[in-house]
């Protein structure tokens, strides 16, 4: 009787809640050029939950994340774990951009009392959750960018954006491997056993030119008037496959991931695969499977075509067979891209150069964010921004100088780059000496400078596949013309070699010094502490001496 | 006549009493199985590509204990460098312990708790003694109690009385012994099986003085531990001898296995290992022959049957409704994705 009642109760709860969280999975496949194919997994979980109540039951939303964000009062959380560099020049823009290594930024709620403490503990928790070294993040390598980042989700209407609740940090050295993918997969409702997640086999993922795990959590509106809110979790994996490593130009899901989709994820509301048809014009190909639907999307003046497949219960794989020989096409450069490199010479004088190219026919407003470690001493007076021979005056400059061992340098520059030009931002710095215990075990590997972030609200959507702010899924990006399209370009990370001592040298020196001291000490000690006393030379033989002694004695006895 | 009958009856009584005692013995043996959970601390202390074999060592043991039932949440895996996704690895996301590439010990489901620069002597000792900074996630804590059997496995480069960590610092045998004593005093373990695959491994456990520790090392003081073989495709030595044979033994064990620790201690005789495997049993109370290997490499999952549970679900519902009855009306908005430049232009 009791059991029946409980069962009934559970089904009742289930029915009530089943509409509250929704999970969708999508896969976007986009041939980037003749050789590279971009595959982007997009898993979205939306959960209609009020601002204050995580304690309620969630069906799909990972409970562990809910607990973390509730405990640390997190408004928005973005994590990227990336291996490889996204080549903007050749590949256009990704759906989600990420800098090489680990990257994390968080907005805390405005009622957070101690942001630094929460940030430290949050990163600690996340390091445990994702097996990443986020626990190395603390206030010494964190910045609060003022212009580059805005909350991507909603905020309270009565509040202003206050960047002191934003914390950004990157770990350019971070290595991404299966140990990060495993816990990431466990956050998926179907746990990578079925559905699109089952394609994520580590051996095939880490064999790519670029792979990036992402976790993006924000608050969204759930109704038209934005009076009800919900949580949205986007889990993304971006991969770029190279036909050279695959062996063939013709690709399929089986070639990419080692297997097709064997079974659909029952918890997903929809499982969809989109294949971008754009490359079909230059390198014509034939889809091995007839698409369920062909979607034409006009976005920001750019027309693109997608073949759509709904993944069902049956075994599924799709691929592409090229019809002609490879044709090398001239790559149409994206509107905006950037590179970063080191200048300077010797072990003392270093420099950093950032080149931002504007390919657009009109000027572009960009925000440059540099996050430079404290072990480089920056000289702001050497900051030079030039376009060709002319100096370019920044619209606004924010510089928060770093402090040795306590704070990173934080530089933000608002630039208006003229049409069809390259802006060069250069800056000089000195290398500092570290204390010997601050050197990592592999000090000769070098020290990293994180990538610069160039944010721009592009007026046109060429090469752009990102999601609009009000969208959560890839399908929301079709026909989503807006007033602008936000891109955040991450440049290369850099390695500098700080003056590094030869660590066996002190040992040698100690050994040598000790030997010298020991050898020198004895004679010196003797010379300085003992007195020289003159002695009368005694020429008598031993026998004489004895006799003399005895004689004295005898004499004494005779007396 | 009478006396003749008396003798057999005496014998019968004796036999009976013996049987009863021996039965009691069996029962107490069952009750004596006094560890309630199993933990494993698996540490690779060396960095750099040419130390590939140490990571293969530690992952081999990781694979075995996981296979025998210790869950990932109770395995603390410390790996000082990244081999699977190292650019020099010809097959990304794999670590092999055999040139035939039969077993990918890294696997498709691995959780590394401490990695890279986090593998330090300080973190290791803090982990063992439980003196961790606040905010340390559960996966980086050794949450053992007085009923825990712990397997501690260390591999790396050692010397007489020390073990190097990451080529930059080392833990001394006395420090190691003191850390274990602190664990004992804090009731953090029931029994420890301490396993080392380093050069001069025996020097590390010589100083131990805490009870209930069974220690085994791949070599005696003055001896080197040797590696097993090279994989030409990878280009480096891929596993050490002792761990290679230990793994071969463990592969033959499953969760219901009756094999005992005495058999495990005999693994890798001198003709295979070239070094002499050292064993220290004097701190360990039980006879290794009576200790099933799953006492350390497997996992106990105690099941407690709870009766008379009263579930009151009604209050749960009423709470839920009361929350939903008072929704706060608040307005929210999206923020423009990038800062407006015009506000800065005069």
UniProtKB/TrEMBL annotation, chain A:
Pfam families: Gpi16 (PF04113). Keywords: Membrane, Signal, Transmembrane, Transmembrane helix. This is GPI transamidase component PIG-T. It comes from Cryptolaemus montrouzieri. The chain crosses the membrane at residues 505-524. Residues 1-18 form the signal peptide. It comes from the Eukaryota.
From TrEMBL, chain B:
Pathway: Glycolipid biosynthesis; glycosylphosphatidylinositol-anchor biosynthesis. It comes from the Eukaryota. The keyword Signal applies. It holds the Pfam family Peptidase_C13. Keywords: GPI-anchor biosynthesis, Signal. GO terms for cellular component: GPI-anchor transamidase complex. GO terms for biological process: GPI anchor biosynthetic process. The active site is at residues 157, 199. Residues 1-24 form the signal peptide. Belongs to the peptidase C13 family. This is GPI-anchor transamidase.
């Amino acid at each position: 009787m009791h059991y029946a009642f409980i069962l009934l109760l559970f089904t009742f709860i289930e029915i009530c809640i089943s509409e509250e969280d929704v999970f969708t999975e999508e896969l976007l496949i986009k041939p980037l050029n003749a050789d590279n194919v971009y595959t982007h997994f997009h898993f979205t979980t939306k959960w209609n939950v009020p601002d204050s109540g995580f304690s309620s039951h969630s069906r799909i939303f990972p409970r562990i994340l809910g607990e973390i964000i509730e405990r640390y009062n997190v408004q928005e959380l973005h994590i990227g774990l990336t291996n490889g560099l996204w080549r903007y020049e050749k590949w256009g823009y990704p759906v989600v951009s990420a800098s090489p290594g680990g990257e994390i930024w968080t907005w805390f709620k405005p009622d957070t009392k101690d942001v630094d403490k929460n940030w430290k503990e949050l990163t600690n928790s996340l390091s445990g959750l994702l097996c990443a070294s986020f626990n190395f993040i603390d206030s010494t390598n964190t910045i609060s960018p003022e212009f580059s980042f805005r909350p991507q989700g909603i905020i309270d209407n009565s509040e202003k954006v206050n960047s002191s609740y934003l914390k950004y940090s990157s770990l350019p050295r971070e290595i991404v491997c299966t140990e990060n993918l495993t816990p990431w997969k466990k956050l998926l409702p179907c746990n990578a056993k079925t559905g699109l997640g089952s394609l994520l086999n580590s051996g095939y993922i880490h064999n790519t030119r670029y792979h990036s795990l992402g976790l993006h959590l924000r608050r969204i509106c759930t109704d038209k008037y934005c009076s009800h809110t919900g949580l949205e979790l986007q889990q993304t994996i971006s991969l770029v496959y190279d036909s050279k490593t695959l062996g063939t130009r013709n690709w399929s899901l089986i070639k990419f991931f080692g297997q097709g989709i064997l079974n659909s994820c029952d918890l997903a509301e929809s499982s969809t695969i989109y294949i971008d048809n754009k490359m079909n014009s230059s390198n014509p190909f034939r889809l091995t499977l007839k698409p369920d639907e062909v979607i034409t999307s006009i976005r920001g003046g750019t027309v693109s075509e997608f073949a759509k497949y709904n993944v069902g219960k049956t075994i599924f794989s799709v691929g592409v067979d090229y019809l002609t020989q490879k044709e090398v096409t001239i790559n149409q450069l994206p509107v905006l891209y950037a590179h970063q490199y080191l200048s300077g010479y010797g072990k003392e004088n270093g420099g950093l150069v950032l080149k931002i190219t504007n390919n657009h026919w009109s000027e572009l407003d960009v925000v440059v964010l540099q996050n430079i470690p404290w072990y480089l001493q920056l000289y702001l007076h050497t900051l030079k921004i030039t376009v060709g021979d002319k100096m370019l005056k920044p619209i606004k400059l924010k510089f928060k100088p770093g402090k040795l061992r306590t704070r990173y340098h934080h530089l933000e520059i608002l630039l208006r780059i003229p049409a069809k030009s390259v802006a060069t931002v250069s800056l000089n710095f000195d290398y500092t000496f570290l204390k010997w215990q601050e050197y990592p075990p592999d000090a000769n590997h070098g020290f990293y400078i994180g990538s610069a972030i160039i944010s721009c609200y592009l007026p046109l959507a060429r090469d752009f596949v990102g999601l609009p702010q009000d969208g959560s899924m890839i399908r929301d990006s079709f026909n989503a013309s807006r007033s602008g399209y936000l891109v955040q370009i991450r440049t290369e990370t850099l390695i500098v070699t700080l003056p590094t001592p030869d660590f066996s040298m002190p040992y040698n020196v100690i050994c040598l010094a000790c030997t010298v001291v020991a050898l020198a000490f004895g004679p010196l000690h003797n010379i300085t502490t003992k007195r020289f006393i003159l002695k009368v030379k005694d020429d008598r033989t031993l026998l004489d001496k004895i006799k003399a002694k005895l004689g004295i004695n005898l004499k004494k006895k005779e007396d | 006549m009478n006396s003749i009958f008396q003798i057999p009856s005496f014998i019968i009584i004796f036999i009976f009493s013996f049987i009863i005692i021996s039965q009691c013995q069996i029962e107490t043996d069952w009750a004596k199985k006094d560890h309630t959970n199993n933990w494993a601390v698996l540490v690779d202390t060396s960095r750099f590509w040419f130390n590939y074999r140490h990571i293969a060592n530690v992952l081999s043991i990781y694979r075995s204990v996981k296979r025998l039932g210790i869950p990932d949440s109770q395995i603390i895996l410390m790996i000082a460098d990244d081999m699977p996704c190292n650019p020099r690895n010809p097959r990304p996301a794999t670590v092999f312990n055999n040139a035939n590439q039969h077993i990918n010990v890294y696997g498709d489901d691995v959780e590394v708790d401490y990695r890279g620069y986090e593998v330090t002597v300080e973190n290791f000792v803090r982990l063992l003694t439980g003196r961790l900074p606040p905010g340390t996630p559960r996966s980086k804590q050794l949450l053992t109690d007085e009923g825990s059997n712990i397997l501690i496995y260390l591999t790396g480069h050692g010397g007489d009385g020390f073990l190097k960590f990451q080529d930059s610092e080392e833990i001394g045998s006395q420090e190691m012994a003191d850390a274990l004593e602190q664990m004992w005093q804090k009731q953090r373990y029931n029994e420890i099986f301490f396993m080392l695959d380093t050069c001069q491994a025996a020097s590390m456990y010589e100083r131990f003085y805490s009870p209930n520790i069974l220690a085994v090392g791949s070599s005696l003081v003055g001896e080197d531990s040797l590696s097993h073989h090279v994989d030409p495709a990878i280009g480096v030595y891929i596993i050490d001898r002792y761990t290679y044979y230990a793994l071969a033994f463990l592969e033959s064990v499953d969760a219901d296995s009756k094999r005992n620790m005495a058999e495990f201690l005999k693994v890798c005789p001198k003709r295979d290992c070239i070094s002499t495997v050292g064993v220290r049993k004097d701190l360990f109370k039980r006879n290794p022959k009576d200790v099933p290997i799953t006492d350390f490499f497997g996992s106990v999952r105690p099941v407690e049957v709870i009766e008379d549970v009263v579930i009151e679900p009604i209050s749960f519902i009423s709470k839920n409704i009361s929350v939903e009855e008072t929704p706060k009306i608040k307005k929210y908005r999206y923020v423009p994705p990038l800062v407006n430049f015009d506000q800065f232009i005069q």
